[in-house]
Amino acid sequence: MKKNTQWTAGDILAEAKVCEEHLACLYNAAALAARSEKIRRDMLDILKDVHQLHHDIDMVMQRRGLYTFQAADPTEIARIRQQLG
What is the helix (H) or strand (E) element at residue 42, kind and residue range? Predict the structure, then answer.
């Protein structure tokens, strides 16, 4: 986290992305530990929302040119599929 400097939109979005990743881990652990089916479903619903937020942050960052996705090489995908069987 930056200290004593001005935060840019990119800094804020990157920090939000890290927070969403931590939240996803916590809600996943809560869903796994839940003894009640209702609580487990609720945790999974929240986890789904967290995943959507993470995706939304990625899309905003990409639109602003702050984050780029590397296109997958079809040959490499085929090779890995073959390895995994």
Answer: helix 37-63
